[in-house]
Amino acid sequence: MRYSFIRDILSQAFMIEPSLLPIYNELFRGLLMGARMEDEKEVLQSTIEVNSNKNNKKSVNVVNLKGLMTRHDGECNYGTRTIARHLREADEDKSVIGHIIVIDSGGGAANSVPDLAEAIEALEKPCVAFVDGMMCSAAIYAGSYCDYIIANREDDRVGCVGTMIQIVDYPKSGQISTGEISVRVYADGSEEKNQDYEEALQGNIQMIKDDVLNPLNAKFVEAMKTNRALSDNTLLKGKTYFAKDVVGTLIDEIGDFKTAMDKVVSLSKENSKTQNISNMFDNLKTIQSCSVIEEASDKTVTLSTEQLTDIDTEFGKLNTQLADAQKSITTLNSSLTDKENRIKELEKALEGVDNKTEVDEKYPQGNSDDDSLDHSEKDSLTYCTNYLKQFSK
Length: 393
Known about the structure:
The protein is an alpha/beta fold. The chain has helices spanning about 5-10, 20-30, 80-90, 115-120, 140-145, 195-200, 205-225, 255-285, 305-355, 360, 375-390; strands spanning about 15, 45-50, 60-65, 95-105, 105-110, 125-135, 150, 155-160, 175, 180-185, 240, 255. Helix content is about 45%, strand content about 15%. The strands form three sheets. Strands 2, 3, 4, 6, 7, 8, 11 and 12 form an eight-stranded mixed beta sheet that branches. It is elongated, with a radius of gyration of 40 Å.
């Protein structure tokens, strides 16, 4: 049993769909009592090719986020740190055009979210979340950072935005049913150590809400509102919804895995256009005053008067170069036209030489009396007629 996995479970606030809590309670209790679990981890990562060009293969990276979410790997699950690492590595692969995260999770430990969320946010290539059963609590928290969310079925479960903690322990002092005595003692000057925890054991829950749960939940809600462009908290109060009821808000559409693949391809093409625009801005950085262009938090860029003046000057130079280039093109086109006309003249002259017969040269007037004869016949008749005319003079 991995210590880091158990620590994640026992020491963290949870963002989890409530129907799963009794199941996990029994699971954790069994682990603490020494139960062993068989490794049933699914394949973490795979790639699906989207073209058949051997010299320029393109593929979509697919990773699975399933079961209980923890930061570290468990006996039957991959931790979010491992998933995040695989996403980053795949994003650096030139043949990968984007990612799909297949999600079937009711959430998990609150500390499992940041590593995965940061990795998704840092991806340069598009990332689509594909809900395959459930995307709740910590899972939707992380999934909201994806560029697009598709649910496989109308009755997939989505939402449960909220934070909770469950504390199971003995009182600060007392006798256990087995006859043992339990006492927790804190050093002088440590009056605030575990104070919220101790207060909660006595039924005073406000302190742990104020110190732990509320700050975590505020960040959760704010991220959901930002990532999903939600104007209020209507869908962010902890309720779990059917996917069909939150299309356009918590998710973007309902479709199969092919829909997710097509979306990645589509977003990848749009991303290429964006990259081209980014390259244009990179070119501006060759101007000394524009060597550092910073984006504001809302992705806008503000340029100074000096920078705008230098950009105008640079564009003026480029326009002059463009005008010179256009003149050169016009001159070349004119020269090309002259050469084409000369070629036509030569071809026409050659045609005249090839078609002119010996009879035509000697008797250019020809015989116009019989148009029904073909060319060779007319040539012969004209020759004979002109020849006989010599003796009649």
